[in-house]
Design brief:
The complex is a heterodimer of chains A (about 375) and B (about 400).
Chain A lengths: L1 H9 L3 H28 L1 H4 L5 E6 L7 E2 L2 H6 L4 E9 L13 E4 L1 H7 L3 E2 L2 H9 L3 E5 H7 L6 E6 L4 E13 L9 E4 H11 L6 E2 L1 E6 L5 H11 L7 E5 H11 L1 H32 L1 H9 L4 H37 L11 H27 L3 H6 L3
Parallel strand pairs in A: 4-9, 6-8
Antiparallel strand pairs in A: 1-11, 1-12, 2-10, 3-4, 3-11, 5-8, 6-9, 7-8
Chain B lengths: L7 H10 L1 H35 L4 E6 L12 H8 L14 E12 L6 E9 L3 H4 L4 E5 L8 E5 H6 L8 E4 L2 E10 L8 E5 H7 L7 E5 L6 H10 L5 E5 H8 L1 H36 L1 H10 L3 H28 L5 E6 L4 E6 L4 H28 L2 H6 L2
Parallel strand pairs in B: 3-8, 5-7
Antiparallel strand pairs in B: 1-9, 1-10, 2-3, 2-9, 4-7, 5-8, 6-7, 11-12
Helix pairs in contact in B: 1-11, 2-8, 2-9, 2-11, 2-12, 9-12, 11-12
Amino acid sequence: MLFRLILKNVFRHRLRTALTLLGVTIAVLAFGLLQTVVGAWYAGAEATSRTRLVTRNAISLVFPLPLSYQQKIRAIPGVTQVSHSNWFGGIYGSERNFFPQFAVEAESYFRLYPEFRLSGEEMQAFLRDRQGAVVGRKLAQRFGWKMGDIVTLRGTIWPGTWRFVIRGIYRGAEATTDEGLFFFHWDYLNEVAKRQYPRRANTVGVFIVGISDAGRAAALSSAVDELFRNSLAETRTETEKAFQLSFVSMTEAILLAIQVVSYVVILIILAVMANTMAMTARERLAEYATLKALGFGPDFVRLLVYGESLAIATLGGALGIALTFPAAYAFGGQLASLFPVFRIQPATLWLQAAAAIAVGVAAAAVPAEKGARVNIVAGLRSIA
Amino acid sequence: MSLTGVPFPYVARNLVTRRMTTLLTAGGMALVVFVFATVLMLSEGLRAALVQSGAPDNAVVIRRGAQTEVQSGIERAQAAIIESQPEVAFDAAGRRLVSKEVVVLISLRKRESGGPANVTIRGVGPQGLALRPQVRLTAGRMFRPGASEIIAGSSVARRFQGAGINETVRFGQREWRVVGIFEAGGSAFDSEIWGDGEQLMQAFRRPVYSSVVVKLADPTRFAAFRTRLETDPRLTVESKPETRFYADQSEVLARFIEILGLALAVIFSLGATIGAMITMYAAVANRITEIGTLRALGFTRRHVLIAFLAESLLLALSGGVVGVVAAAFMQFFTLSTMNWQTFSEVAFGFRLTPGIVLASLGFAALMGVVGGFLPALRAARLSIVAALRAA
């Protein structure tokens, strides 16, 4: 009885219901996309390992560290292996094609990052070729690169034209692994640097320190920093996650804005939805009075209003959630350079559903009370 | 009562009569317009911060291929050649208006969160201040050449630990005392720390400059200046007018804000337009008899159409005004974020211009018209007889 009434009510004002539904769908979709953007921001930090530390120059990342530190760090008990990398910052064609490039100490680096999966032959081919490069699967797709292709980068930090041969295309072990990176041999960079920029030879951007016990990360971090205190290049060591989060925190103002905006979307749709329910209830006051005159209690009227509101909200929410997948796919493709990992998290789907239901309930609250409290005599008089 | 149109008070009273619905719809509109205006204010603020950083008659010279000052390096001998170009202006005392600068990023902790952020340290030459007339000291004094002293931009001083006046910052194995605070009119320099170029080069063991900034005696001769520098075989540099240089530095961030803002405006306006449409359809449905009466009184279909459109427009504009007024308060806040291209913090404000006010109200009006058009059309199409019979 109740359900049939609700269903009938939902479809009484077809146009109004359709518009409201559309509104809820758009809001839930927008909310999901914005949350996914926020999630993509944190993707780098999520994909970190607890047994990797990053050591950089204490002044800031733009200052290098001497290569000689590597031996000293490796000698610390609890450190299993040490690798190093330099940010290259080259341009492929135009600035628009931005992707991160790192000069790495090949063997130790890929041992430290087992999530970058490379076949044995590819690894061998890369190690044999001084100018070889390894790229992520998504990056290769983006530019249509194949094995053996030659990629030319224009250096901005190390001026000049740099030629690389693609010797490997890695796949990520997890869905969250960044498949948009470009790696080449640190030795190659260093050789050129020795010739052309001798002042900058034998320096590295960061050391990646593998440790055996994640529980000792803090102790080992301070052990590394203690080693180089009061030296020409003091270090700051932190877990890989903290290192990645420090990048995120620099843009946290934008993140905050996106977060706020995603909730404002919900508020706007709440206003739209509440408006619809208020109008609906106002139009049906006489009906509610009739129902009450027939002996239905105020709770029945409440349920009627809540039911209608929830039906529209959940239907709109479900549509919005369903549309989030193709929208995120299209959106992620457009922003591949900015967000290498653009994935809808399960939590986002739950939040979307919760938001839709919350809007449905909140929008019905005032009209339901109004309907429930309608005075039978006054309500019926308005018909006459 | 004139028969040329439905009297305006009738239109306005309709909105007042159904207070709750009007409030909710206008509230939704207000939120949309608020967000729309805020985004515009943000990109305007960013633009202002970066354009004001540059003076139109200054030129920045950096190493060819380097996109930012931090990546750049210019040898002392090269800097001397740049300094001696004939286009460079002289000051009253006959010195060339040139500042050979060294720019490095250091990581400082924020006062509020304790989180690290990159701050630009600029080592300027003796003429550094003369080249930037918008920079003036608001507290303390200028750093002394040769001393471990720095001056901090007002926004850095406020936001970072150790950057306030008489506080100290430690880097390059030294303590640097902040002896002055400067104000740069909301430009990117407000997010920088300045010190003596030669001292900073020693501290960071850097033998090269990052950039050379020159004031041109005649800015129209910039092209000649650039061509000569870029064809000189002793140099590997490129140059840009300073205004251009700063605009280019923030291109990515500006574009990101624009795209995000545009996407939000589209999504939001859909929601709000739907809200207006629902409200107006309901208004039409509730007043069928009234419409019939109006028509019977001699108002034409066109009059009815205009009356309902006007009602929708009024609804949207009242929301729009509330939204803009709320957005105006955002001017009290500043936002700081990392500029991806320079990797350093830049702080900028929300800036409300008459153009933005107009654009926001126009946007609200558009939502009102789009949302109100179909319902108004329905009202106008009602036949007199059918409408009156509905009673």
